[in-house]
Write a structure and sequence with these properties.
The chain has 445 residues and is mainly beta. Helix content is 10%, strand content 35%. The protein is globular and about 70 Å long.
Length: 445
């Protein structure tokens, strides 16, 4: 080969290597620029050592001290606002920031010790932003007074976490609301929020007279397309001048397309109550409900004849396990024009000391098991041939172990109703089904 051709090839190779090095350099610069653009900032709030004159970007005296200062922060997607563990502030915290799906803004905690507490505001944590993650926060209230006309019931309109109109795609998790009027309140116009793995405890405040005697709600949903799952909700029960007792673990009023699933509810006046003619398409699946209260309820909904509080259409109640031991317990009520477009109830185990339920007309009912501890379940609605009045043979009802024991009539006796809606695991996380068909109730054997 002529020397001139060899030199030409050698020069061409050097050109290619140089171009490749330059390209890699450009890629590195762009990668660094992307990393820089995505860099996030953490701001800290310390109730004791903090200083509102500081930048807030460090701990100790570099942190802010008060919530009013934190509320003024300008948080960008990916940023964090961290509240010091062991601290208590008087609310509100106003979460007005806007993250993105790829870079949400996180409001949480730092340090060791008890979760930070925010207390005693009308709306203790007020959420107006979007793509926010709120976690590891405790909200609580002391009553503003006591109603001597109603057994000295604690009073006050105090809300733990309030999702305001326009807020959307937010997540509330690993947090606690205790001693409030509403633990969580999702307003009309707030949508696509996730409320999971929280603790709603004794939210038993009632309205101050002469207002309505209502109150004591763990989670109130007026917004749309929200997901409420894996929460523990207990003690939503209050004295009421109008109703004697009132309160709900979960209440749907105007909300549409909300999913209520895999929650555990203990000693609430009612597990879920639905009202208002704009409410529709609620799904209630794989929940465990127990109450020892005298007059507890599982489900209350309304038909087309209820012009004040209904009708509520499209409620699907699938694979729940319910045990009410009170002498006046009344599990299911579908009144004033109940029908199949109002209520579908399948694959549930309902054990109630007094009434399993009443409906003024037939609804979509199948593959349920009803029982009463003394063996005489009172069912005042038409039952399908696939539903039975039988002991479900739970492992231990007395200790609230609602897993299915050997020989339970619930095993492989359910329909695919919940599975077809996308619920593929039971309350304990077991894949459904494990046999020829799903089991009835919240647990797959």
């Amino acid at each position: 080969m002529p020397r001139s051709q060899g030199r030409a090839r050698s020069g061409h190779a050097r050109f290619i290597r140089a171009a490749l090095v330059a390209s890699l350099a450009i890629v590195a610069v762009l990668a660094f620029a992307g990393t820089a653009a995505a860099a996030s900032t953490t701001y800290y709030v310390d109730c004791s050592a903090g200083n509102d004159g500081a930048a807030g970007k460090g701990t100790g005296n570099q942190a802010w001290k008060t919530l009013p200062r934190a509320n003024q922060a300008t948080l960008a997607p990916g940023d964090r606002l961290s509240l010091k563990a062991g601290c208590t502030w008087t609310g509100p915290l106003i979460a007005k920031w806007k993250g993105t799906a790829a870079a949400p803004i996180t409001i949480g905690t730092y340090g060791s010790g008890a979760a930070p507490e925010i207390v005693n505001a009308h709306d203790i944590v007020q959420i107006t932003g979007s793509y926010l993650i709120l976690q590891d926060i405790v909200t609580r209230s002391t009553p503003v007074g006591y109603d001597k006309t109603c057994g000295d019931a604690p009073m006050g309109w105090r809300v733990g976490f309030r999702f305001m109109p326009g807020s959307a795609y937010n997540t509330l998790r690993y947090s606690t609301a205790v001693g409030l009027y509403n633990g969580v309140f999702v307003e009309a116009g707030s949508h696509h929020n996730k409320i999971f793995s929280n603790h709603m405890i004794k939210n038993n405040l009632k309205d101050v007279p002469p207002n309505s005697g209502g109150g004591a709600v763990g989670i109130l949903l007026m917004g749309e397309d929200n997901d409420v799952s894996y929460n523990d909700i207990s003690g939503s029960d209050a004295c009421s001048v109008q109703y004697g007792r009132d309160g709900s673990a979960i209440e749907i009023f105007r909300g549409k397309r909300n999913n209520i699933h895999h929650n555990t509810a203990v000693d609430n006046n009612t597990f879920i109550e639905l009202g208002n003619k704009t409410s529709a398409d609620t799904t209630v699946a794989y929940n465990k409900v127990y109450s020892s209260l005298k007059a507890a309820n599982f489900l209350m909904t309304r038909g087309a004849g209820d012009t004040s509080w209904g009708p509520v259409y499209g409620t699907k109640v699938y694979n729940n396990s319910v045990y009410l031991t009170g002498a006046q317990s009344y599990a299911v009520q579908c009144i004033k024009g109940c029908n199949a477009s109002v209520l579908s109830m399948r694959n549930n185990i309902i054990v109630s000391q007094w009434y399993v339920g009443y409906s003024d007309a037939a609804f979509d009912e199948a593959n349920n098991i009803y029982w009463q501890p003394q063996g005489n379940p009172k069912v005042y609605f038409p039952m399908s041939s696939s539903s039975r009045k039988m002991d479900p043979r739970w492992v231990n009802a007395g200790t609230r172990d609602f897993h299915l024991g050997a020989g339970s009539p619930a095993i492989d006796a359910g329909s695919m109703a919940a599975w077809n809606l996308g619920f593929r695991t039971d309350l304990s996380g077991m894949t459904v089904p494990r046999g020829g068909a799903p089991d009835i109730g919240a647990y797959e054997r």
